[in-house]
Amino acid sequence: MNRNAYLLTVDPLSKRAIFSKNILEQIGFNVILVTALTNSNKVLSNKLSMLHIYEIISKKNDSWSYVFEDDINLLEKISIDEIIQYENISEMFFYLGCCRYLDSINNSNYVINNYPVYTVQYGVRGLHSIGISKQCATQLIEFSKIYENEEYMDVILEHFCNKCPANVVRYDLESYIEGHRGIVFQDRHKFPTSIF
Predict the structure, then answer these.
(1) Range of the domain at 62
(2) Which of 28, 54, 74, 138 has the most beta carbons within 10 angstroms of its beta carbon?
(3) Do the domain assignments include residue 193?
(4) Of 129, 147, 154, 135, residue with least CA distance to 20
């Protein structure tokens, strides 16, 4: 099965972009590199760039797409077929990796490849790896207008998650950064943060 992965980067030729692109292609994604929109405020650049990607997704015919930042790595191998199973149990979007700052999770009662699927609703941040439906992309663009003064897009996504809880791919996995859960994590050792 074919799924598009939009990979946000400042420089498509950078080591981090190439590394992240290779990981996504090994999983089985069709990777589309998206150069970040420039802004003197790097946080705002990230928000505007993400909204730009959601706009692209909202106009495509694909029922599901994926969005990643270029500082990702995997905690274990995973295939596109396993990831697609999360689409079947998710309404709007789901995290392939997230940053948890509150301990509020729910067991969804689903099991994929022998791993229980957990759902988050509160105390969750991160934009580095999500699966997003066409419907969600459209709604998220409109929803973001309520929080137009909020510069951080992951905070806006958190508010959206409050009303539309999201599953997490392999919540049982945690990176070397406490609270960073899921199959995909931001590899801060390999790639220092560079909010676009």
Answers:
(1) 4-186
(2) 54
(3) no
(4) 129
Q: Report which of 183, 178, 173 is spatially closest to residue 74, judged by C-alpha positions.
A: 183
Read off the pLDDT of residues 134-179 as tens digits, 9 standing for 90 and up.
999 999 999 999 999 999 999 999 999 999 999 999 999 999 988 8
In a domain, 180, yes or no: yes
The closest alpha carbon to 79, from 113, 35, 50, 55, belongs to: 113
Q: Could you tell me the pTM of the whole model?
A: 0.94
Q: What is the CATH number of the domain that holds 85?
A: 3.90.550
Q: How many angstroms separate the Cα of 94 from the Cα of each of 18, 44, 97, 148? A: 24, 23, 9, 23
Task: Say how many domains are in the chain.
Answer: 1
Tens digits of residue pLDDT in 5-22: 999 999 999 999 999 999
